[in-house]
Design brief:
The protein is globular. With about 280 residues, the protein is α/β, with parallel strands linked by helices. The longest helix is centred in the C-terminal third of the chain and has 21 residues. The two termini are about 25 Å apart. It is about 30% helix and about 25% strand. α6 packs antiparallel against α7.
Length: about 280
């Protein structure tokens, strides 16, 4: 709610437009966010048709299994792969997604997916047993409204599960303004453990447990793919340099960052991703 903020640095939209966006920090509470940002009805153009979560699921087989009597909602469900898995475990599944084409594709294979609205969820109070947001919370425009809505739609003692990038991670500090998980302007908010906990407590969630998850360097190609994104960010940000200088700069800094990440001693709260679970009161 504070209007007092300071600019930390500028980042480039490396995936779509090459536009520059500011990352700012609230002077009063320390929360970091992208400002200014595209409006809700403009943000779709920054995702594009090739956005990773919009790709077709590996299977669209909805099994004929008995219901376990529980309802599950995934915010930002993408093509619906996780919804399919939960349906096949007996849950009544529902999804929310921004892109109309993705919503239509999910509906065609039998999933109940609704078009996202900026500040409300189209469900009755105390409707769900569990709500999941996997790298979605940082994308939501009306953050307080939607978190309050999730509390309204969850049953008492219903479970909320969230995973977001960790702005206080070693990986983030290692790459600074080139960190791939800043992902402006799609990522509107940049959470650490304190800000994520404060948000959940503000809206009445309890039994909050937060841990971090790190990405193994040599076991998953995901990390190496991310390094390429950081290298591109370095290359396109330094436009005043010569082409050869930009290439060398990007390769050198990415290599140094990779070695530092591979060698550092991980702690409980410096992993690249934050995972939170909480219960509704």
């Amino acid at each position: 709610g504070s209007e007092s903020q300071r600019k930390l640095f500028q980042c480039i939209d490396i995936k779509q437009t090459r536009e520059i966006f500011n990352i700012v920090q609230c002077v009063d509470c320390g929360f970091k966010f992208t400002n200014p940002r595209p409006a809700f009805d403009e943000i779709g153009q920054y995702y594009g048709k090739t956005y990773y979560s919009y790709q077709a699921p590996s299977t669209n087989l909805l099994a004929n299994v008995p219901s376990n009597g529980k309802r599950f909602l995934e915010m930002g469900c993408g093509s619906g792969e996780y919804l399919i898995a939960m349906h096949n475990q007996g849950y009544d599944t529902y999804g929310i997604e921004l892109d109309e084409n993705v919503v239509s594709a999910a509906m065609k294979i039998g999933l109940d997916v609704r078009k996202a609205e900026s500040n409300r969820l189209p469900f009755d109070p105390e409707y769900f047993d569990e709500i999941r947001l996997n790298h979605v919370l940082e994308h939501l425009h009306s953050l307080n409204d939607i978190v309050a809505e999730m509390g309204r739609c969850l049953k008492s003692d219903g479970v909320l599960k969230i995973e977001v990038p960790n702005i206080s991670s070693f990986d983030s500090k290692n790459f600074g303004k080139y960190w791939r998980h800043l992902d402006v302007p799609r990522h509107l908010y940049h959470f650490d453990e304190l800000s994520l906990r404060a948000l959940l407590e503000k809206h009445g969630f309890c039994d909050i447990k937060i841990s971090t998850v790190d990405v193994p360097v040599f076991k998953k190609l995901f990390y190496l793919k991310g390094l390429f994104t950081s290298a591109k960010s370095m290359f396109y940000t330094e436009e005043k340099r010569s082409l050869l200088s930009r290439i060398f700069h990007a390769l050198f800094l990415t290599s140094v960052g990779f070695v530092r990440y591979a060698l550092h001693n991980k702690s409980e709260l410096d992993g690249a991703f934050l995972f939170a679970s909480a219960k509704n009161r």
